[in-house]
Amino acid sequence: MILKVNNLKKRYGKVKAVDGISFSVKRGEIFGVLGPNGAGKTTTLECIEGLRSYDDGEIEIFGEKMTTNNDFFKKKMGIQLQESSLPQRMKVWEALDFFSSFYNKNVDWKDLLVRLHIDDKRNNYFSNLSGGEKQRVFVALAMINDPEILFLDEITTGLDPQARRHMWKTMKEIKNMGKTIVMSTHYMEEAEYLCDRVIIVDRGKVIAGGAPRKLINNLGIKNRIVVESKEEVDPGIFKDLKSVCDISLKDGKIEIVGTGTDVLMDIARVITDRQIKVDLQYKTANLEDVYLSLTGYTKEDAI
Amino acid sequence: MKAVCKMVFIKTKLFIREIEGFFFTIFFPIIMLLIFGSIYGNKPSDYFGGFGFVDVSVPAYIGMIIAITGFMSIPISIASDRERGILKRFRILPGGSMIAMVSWIIFYYLITTIGTAGLIITGKLLYGLRFTGNTLIIFLLYSLSTVAFLSIGFLLASLMRSARSANAIGMSLLFPMMFFSGAIIPMRSLPASIKHISVYLPLTYVVDIMQKGWFGGALHSYRIDLFVLSGIVVFSFLIAKLTFRW
């Protein structure tokens, strides 16, 4: 374990921002801290990073007890802050060159720019970069001291889908370099794709934790199939299928809830047997369903 | 040490690229000298104790440069960096806050000195500026004045919540102060009622000490200035250190 957090508590006035969060992170994994805005993700990360004092609990990192504002930890950690920036007129290479001078142990920043696919922007002013490019620069800055563990706080928030995918690819590459990544996000599909293990945080408390697939399977969350057709289709034709749990009609579409992947095969068989022309939509259960079923929120008030 | 050098260097580069600060610190005082110098010239007169207008204005304008650094450059730049989350970055760097502090002091001392040098060179070349003091002493007096205003700058930067308030408050303190302290209008031309206000303006003591030092005044003639400026250094740095937020 590279990081252990035990019963962390932090309050701001009367608000319990973090209310007894515990988890541990293994070396070399991508660990996700998930939850809606205001769940306590950033506060948790900032306590671990030594930027914030906390009221109670223990944090152990690299096998040492964490203390705030300690250079020993700063040298071994890479941190991307959620709300941070660089001077508008600073060039990319200048930022890397400057921030590398704070560390004795450095990686070659030219090499880092290549690895993070931002090399062609090295002479650009920071203000002329796109959102995705800025985030890449921040990742590069976080990695400049060749850290063992990297903290990425909502790194893809506000990025367009393409830039987000590109960032995901980069994060997998960073993992393959042997780094440990602790990331926070409120995009469930992102966590599902990237993270080896996650915790889901709501109102300062951990409400679930583990590998994303395992969480989904353990909860026995059903898959959902929507059948849409121009022809009149009798929902009753799916009734006798074993894998089907529930059938309902919504806006002229048939929504079928079932277990496992069997349900899709069964439905497909019925449709082909009767030669009906339909449009099938298959929605596998995902982390968002886990989150919604645990919190009792609906999709609208969740994110 | 390496980080301090890099930071001073990069701050200087950004200072030139972001032209506003450069204009106020370097060009504005020279333009003032050119305008008033062309009107009044630098002929010796009894009104100025046997010296010319430019001779007495240059040490006063040096006070103006120092005040611009303390009341505008430092608070606006630091408050805006804080607002944009640039300052926070120093807290995650080993030795970050210490390195930033030291670099700021060196950088702002440096640009104030460049502005001062530009003014002196302009006065010398165009108006045959006269200096009858001691070079080492005037340098020490200048340094004390600058450090006092740097400390005020950090104090204001600590207290200001945003770049906008730093700008508004810095300007509204700076401009009346420049007029009421003898920096632009000679102190002896100011009416008595204004002189009551001048006593409370830190710039008054800078202008006085620079002019006295410039013409080789004796130590006892500016000992009050020394006390006041030293007091400002201690007080402002202390409060700034206690209240500074990253």
TrEMBL record, chain B:
GO terms for molecular function: ABC-type transporter activity. One of its GO terms (cellular component) is ATP-binding cassette (ABC) transporter complex. Keywords: Cell membrane, Membrane, Transmembrane, Transmembrane helix, Transport. InterPro entries: ABC-2_transporter, ABC2_TM, ABC2_TM_bact-type, ABC_2_transport. The keyword Cell membrane applies. The chain crosses the membrane at residues 21-40, 60-80, 92-111, 131-156, 168-187, 224-244. This is Transport permease protein. The keyword Signal does not apply. It is a multi-pass membrane protein. The lineage of its organism: Bacteria, Bacteria division TA06. It is found in: Cell membrane; Membrane. Pfam families: ABC2_membrane. Residues 20-245 form the ABC transmembrane type-2 domain. Belongs to the ABC-2 integral membrane protein family.
